[in-house]
Structure to design on (332 residues):
């Protein structure tokens, strides 16, 4: 079926295409109210849908933004994705969502693709592999060249003067560990994310800070490197069981439930206290509750969208904003 154009409407109403374009875009024009009504009526009858591509050529805007996340299966990032989409619709914007799978090369590839598609702004969660391979500078150079509004989400690149909204991971790690200590625990194991990950480094610093403040020796045998997936939490718990640890701080809820699943299968779930991180919906839905550190994904999404859309709509370049949000301990 042939798509209706403003030319079709103009012919039926017997006016110029310019007049139709001005009326449909609510631009100032001297045509009569009766003619305006006829144009809108015919447009509706012909099921006219504006050509956004043609409009973008005129306005130099596509009304789209790009969102690069590492893993849509991770509930924290899927929650951010949904919230960003909801907020963007209020701004009459569409979100192009892509996964980097925490790969540096893929992150470079999909970011370039979004730029080539002419998005008006970018929200980017840096891939963990970018830190691992020490390729922050390469990724930073790509982002610098975009010359479009940009906000780094959750993970920052040191020394990069750009908008960013993150959570204070060190505080989160501190709160989780302190909570276990206040419950009488001293032999606290932890299942981290990849050791090169920014979130891992920050949360581990918080873990160690809480232990040091309470004069508890830091035992490296208690620290196990995971990958933020359920399976690593499950498998690494076997190693923790070979130590004398009596509690576990997992650096996200997926690994925390992996640990709990392992302990349950061995009928040892009541012998360990567990604290997770992110406080995803899985925590409230599961019969076996665990305490967790909440990172408010809705608040984070509001902050990043507020910065991004202010920059998109500003006629002048705004100064970079760096916002650090505070996580909270949630007792479930």
């Amino acid at each position: 079926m042939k798509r209706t154009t403003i030319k079709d409407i103009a012919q039926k109403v017997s006016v110029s295409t310019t007049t139709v374009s001005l009326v449909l875009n609510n631009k100032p024009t001297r045509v009569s109210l009766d003619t305006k009504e006829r144009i809108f009526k015919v447009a509706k009858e012909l099921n006219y849908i504006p050509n956004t591509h043609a409009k973008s050529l005129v306005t130099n805007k596509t009304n789209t933004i790009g969102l690069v996340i590492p893993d849509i299966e991770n509930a924290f990032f899927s929650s951010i994705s949904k919230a960003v989409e909801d907020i963007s619709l209020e701004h009459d914007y569409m979100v192009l969502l892509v996964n980097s799978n925490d790969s540096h090369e893929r992150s470079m590839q999909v970011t370039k693709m979004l730029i080539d598609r002419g998005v008006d702004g970018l929200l980017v969660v840096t891939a963990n592999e970018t830190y691992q391979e020490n390729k922050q500078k390469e990724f930073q150079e790509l982002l610098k060249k975009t010359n479009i509004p940009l906000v780094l989400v959750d993970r920052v690149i040191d020394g990069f003067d750009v908008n960013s909204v993150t959570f204070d991971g060190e505080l989160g790690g501190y709160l989780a560990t302190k909570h276990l200590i206040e419950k009488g625990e001293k032999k606290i194991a932890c299942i981290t994310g990849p050791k090169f990950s920014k979130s891992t480094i920050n949360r581990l610093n918080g873990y160690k800070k809480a232990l040091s403040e309470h004069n508890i020796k830091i035992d490296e045998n208690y620290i196990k490197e995971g990958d933020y997936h359920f399976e690593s939490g499950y498998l690494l718990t076997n190693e923790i069981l070979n130590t004398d640890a009596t509690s576990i701080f997992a650096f996200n809820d997926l690994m925390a439930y992996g640990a709990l699943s392992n302990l349950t299968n061995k009928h040892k779930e009541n012998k360990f206290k567990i604290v997770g991180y992110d406080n995803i919906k899985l925590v409230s839905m599961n019969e076996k509750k665990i305490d967790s550190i909440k990172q408010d994904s809705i608040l984070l999404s509001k902050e990043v969208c507020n910065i991004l859309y202010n920059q998109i709509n500003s006629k002048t370049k705004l100064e970079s904003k760096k916002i650090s949000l505070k996580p909270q301990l949630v007792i479930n």
The mean pLDDT is 90. Residues 191 and 250 are 5 Å apart (CA to CA). Residues 6-50 form one domain. The chain has three domains: 6-50, 62-167+297-325, 169-294.
